[in-house]
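Why should sequence recovery work at all? Because a backbone constrains its sequence more than one might expect. Tight turns favour small or flexible residues, buried strands favour hydrophobic ones, and helices have their own preferences. The token representation captures these environments compactly. In the example below, the structure is given first.
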């Protein structure tokens, strides 16, 4: 064998040996894009403490943070591939999945009472029935929107009986305070702020109709990088446990982002946010399914949709979480 031939064979052998490593390196993302939101306090701690940055520094993977102003925005970002992980309400994720958004729900970050129907302190509105013919601010594709639809259904009404004014959550609160609308399907912390600072009234509350705070991942990302998803959830779990054990630190991180006063933050975090769950199990499934079936009864979801079957494709509870 000539020297040239030997060199060629050696090169081919080395290329074959190194090929899997090269493919793996090319397959590894340069960054993980994840959202944070004021309705997801754990995400704020995660971001502030740089926990994901520390976890993935050794892999050369950067972390890109994107703020979600509501479930609808998080779902838009996920659908567009702008983020890999997004925080939503469970019911909003279900509706998005029905509409073709390629996501999987993989983790619980909170059990909140983050929405209620709100009016001004001087309003004569005292019940859901009083909303007939009224202007109601709402953000479509979010838990407050779904909460409103279910409340109307329970009062024998539908969205056709009100005038929905479509605004993002913060703008909905501002419209209520200005008197541009008669009521608002509220979301914390803006709802807590309206209560504390403006005397706004939560005239209809139903904690069990608030679906769980759920972390979702793009299906493509989960399929391509299951180990990275597992590691993200392990770090998320560390942040949730830290938040649960260190309320003062959680509160200060939240204030640092929102600039809200203590009384507003305590109302949201102490009174209406529970952080003792992480796995998606029967209670979460049942809550999301109940919301989906109510929306189907209200005509928001088509009768032909098998809501339970879609829920089964939405939830992936196979990603392992730390047991300690």
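From this structural description, the recovered sequence reads:
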């Amino acid at each position: 064998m000539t020297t040239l031939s030997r060199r060629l064979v050696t090169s081919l052998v080395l290329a074959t040996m190194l090929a899997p490593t090269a493919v793996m390196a090319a397959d590894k993302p340069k960054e993980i894009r994840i959202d944070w939101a004021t309705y997801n306090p754990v995400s704020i701690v995660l971001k502030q403490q740089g926990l994901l940055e520390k976890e993935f520094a050794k892999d050369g993977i950067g972390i890109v943070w994107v703020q979600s102003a509501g479930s609808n925005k998080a779902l838009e970002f996920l659908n567009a591939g702008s983020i890999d992980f997004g925080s939503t309400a469970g019911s909003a994720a279900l509706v998005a999945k029905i509409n073709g958004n390629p996501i999987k729900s993989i983790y619980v970050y909170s059990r909140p009472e983050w929405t209620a129907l709100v009016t001004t302190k001087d309003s004569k509105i005292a019940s859901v029935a009083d909303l007939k013919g009224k202007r109601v601010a709402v953000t479509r594709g979010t838990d407050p929107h779904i909460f409103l639809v279910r409340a109307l259904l329970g009062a024998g009404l539908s969205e056709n009986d009100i005038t929905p004014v479509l605004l993002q959550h913060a703008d909905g609160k501002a419209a209520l305070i200005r008197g541009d609308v008669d009521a608002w399907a509220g979301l914390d912390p803006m709802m807590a702020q309206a209560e504390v600072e403006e005397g706004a009234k939560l005239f209809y509350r139903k904690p069990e109709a608030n679906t769980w705070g759920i972390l979702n991942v793009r299906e493509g990302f989960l399929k391509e990088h299951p180990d990275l998803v597992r590691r993200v959830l392990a770090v998320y779990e560390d942040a949730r446990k830290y938040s649960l054990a260190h309320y003062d630190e959680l509160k200060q991180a939240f204030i640092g982002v929102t600039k809200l006063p203590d009384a507003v933050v305590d109302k949201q975090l102490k009174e209406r946010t529970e952080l003792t769950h992480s796995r998606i199990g029967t209670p979460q499934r049942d809550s999301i399914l109940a919301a989906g079936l109510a929306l189907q009864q209200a005509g928001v979801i088509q009768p032909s949709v098998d809501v339970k079957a879609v829920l089964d494709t939405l939830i992936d509870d196979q990603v392992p979480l730390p047991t300690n």
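A few observations help interpret the result. The two ends are 60 Å apart (CA to CA).
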